Amino acid sequence: MAAETPTKIPIGTPTKTPAHFTDRFARLAAPVFGDVAPRAMILLGTLLALLLVAPWFINDYLLTVLIVVLYFAFTGQAWNIMMGFAGQLSLGHAIYAGLGGYIAAVLFARFGIAPWLGFLAVIPVAAVCGATIGFLAFRFRVAGVYFAILTIAFAEFARIGFDHLDFVNASAGLFLPVAQYAHNDLWHLRGNPTMFYYVILTAAALVFVLCRALLKSRVGYCWLAIREDEQAARAVGIDSFHYKMAAVMISAVITSFAGVFYAFFYNNLFPEQVFNISRSIEMILGPIIGGIGTLFGPILGAFVITGLAEGLNTALIALGFDLPGAKQVFYGICLLLVVVVLPDGVWPWLARLIGVDEARR
Amino acid sequence: MKTLLSLQAVSKRFRGLVAVDAVSFDVAAGELFAVIGPNGAGKTTLFNMIAGAVAPDSGSISFAGEAIGGLPPDAICRRGIGRTFQIVRPFPVLTVEDNVIVGALLHNRDVGKARACASEFLRRLDLFDQRNRIAATLTLPDRKRLEVARALATEPKLLLLDEVMAGLRPTESDRMVAILRTLNRDSGLTIVLIEHVMRAVMALASNVLVLDHGIAIAQGEPEAIVRDPAVVQSYLGAEPV
pTM for the complete prediction? Predict the structure, then answer.
């Protein structure tokens, strides 16, 4: 936001405040920088450049860590559309990732259909699944924590259902044929970690651009209004049902792509794992730690949580402190501290510190 | 004059309590219409029924010749009724400008156009200089004006104002009266307001409806209303205003 004016401006006097001039500058710069603050543009560009060249400088272990980071940056942003923008708490996002993974994997393993074509089949399924949950909740006014419970219930239905679905090998799990890494086959998503890295980096970057475009558009304004006060939003003519449905469906479809990626990266799917509630929780930790409702928060949060987990791992092993469960305990304590110290997330605090406040949350 | 809003025997009961009991009245296009009455008289319930926040149990509400009773609030807003809330409800973490843009987006598909439209209403309500502030940080009078600006940005034919003067100092309330008068005169905006500040009612309204225990006990010009014995007895008190 452009500098809050702390002094009260006398009513009716068109005083020129410092805010007035920064605002004018921002408006003049808008055509050049596309209304992103120049400093934010430079920082984003630097981060992207670093991530682009990273595979040349780091080992396979760190590359895999970065893939996990970007995976959570991707899913975190997808979840943030629903919770951060439209204010609808989903605790069952594993269902969309799981459906995406299973559908694309089955189509590939059984019929040899490429994952990108498989994703085309996933899109309507994820959208319909999101729409079903959304319709039941919004039509019958299931809101807040009850809505969250409904999303968990659906994810659990899927977990138990897939556990008994012989077509996908039920609880025995579905395995993708693993070929030799002779060359990278981007079309079939078969290859080395570097290829997967660039796929998920591109996906995370595209979703960032999409989220920004959504937030700045009419639909973004309507979502924020609904998140802030649904009754007041309806009083200015916003059909909240319609916009909440859009949020769930967009979020579901984006998340389902993460599932496709997951299936082809790990090459195996077990209902007990992919639909597990801990998958849903993992997805939302990034945005919560980074800053719900912000654009960059989910990305920063993904770096923080994954970095913390991996860092703790290394630290505990180095210290010879190898008790079972110790990592989880420390991880929990660290997250707790972050939430207590920075309840709005790390990003709003960091953004103020480096002077790149997002215009609007 | 053409009737814009018409209520016929509209009632609403909450469990055993009859909040609004068979109230009928007409508001002509371009009129400044006030609803007064003691606390708990059913004024806000009446408003909520017109705005669609609660559905009437019986009776009919028509707006511009169309029955709107029981429609959802967003549908009613899209037909041209804007409202403010008695307890102000701006979108707290959005900026003042963004609050009004949300309203302006109803008739402007494009955010840029909505922003231009919002600027106009921010200027009218003396909020333009504060447009980049977060709404939650505004003072109460400013938040009240913000609510009016946001409602106006939806370009309503009828504006429902629920106690916009309450909590304002006399000078601030006079300022609000002036703004509302200008709006009414310049754009022919019809305004129905619930008000306790009799000073504002006397200055603004051409027609006054008095509610008491959900029943319409009097209706007429403000000068006649303040002399009506029933009104004096139930609401204004023995001392003349």
Answer: 0.87
